[in-house]
Specification:
By secondary structure, the protein is an all-alpha fold. It has 14 helices and no strands. The protein is globular and about 50 Å long.
Length: about 270
Amino acid sequence: MPKPDADKVLGCLTGLAVCEALAELSGTTPPVTEPLKSGLWGDGTSMTLAVAESLAECGGVDERDQMVRLTSWFRYGYQSSGETCDRIDDTVKAAILRFERTWDPIDQDRTQGDACLARVAPTAIFFAGSREAALDACARATRITHSDLRSVDACRLLAAMLDEALTGADRQRVLRPQPPEGLCPEAASLCAAAQALGDCPACLALAAAMNAFAGSDSFADGCALCLPSGPRAMAAYGQLAGAWYGFEAIPEAWRRSLARVELLQKAADSLLKS
């Protein structure tokens, strides 16, 4: 299966990092000609880099290996923008502490949350063009921290949309992909005219990202629309819009001001070569 365009792959990863850095700002997004204030990304990008490395080195999903790498990030700041783990979602932290106690890489408590949305990109890129493999891999990678069906299905739907974006589909096809089989009602409603999201954090964040993508004509404009919806919506939007628009469409001043940009390029290269 042909690999996706390198510009789209790097755009997907860089879009995530930029949007997480923007989410740290209060108020509105800065002008596209101004650098980001700190350039530090959030926990989603660190998790993404850890998962990308695991996929490339293991040749696919290895849940225990992914948890080992997330533990290294939590304990030692591995793959973080500031070289320390100073930002971590409570549900992810609980999953890592559980793994250290039990060596079981799978969440057995049906934990729900939206932090898992921020690390969908690596599996979508690694399995791009192989839809069923991508969706299965995404579900397996999600369950290491969030095994609630609604969280898993929101991530599967985002993976389906990323697969379309990475392989050059038009905007309407990206927003309305063929729904993954067996989606829960909340996630399935994201592809319908009337949404019924309930209290599912992952579905609510993904809906905000989709609305920002649908209602804008550039990566930066979508960021401004999505920012009020919070960091997880921004993470989902960054992956989706970055994959669709590509790396070069992300404002140069924003992407150049990111900390440790070499890690993003390294991850993109490793996923494309695998």
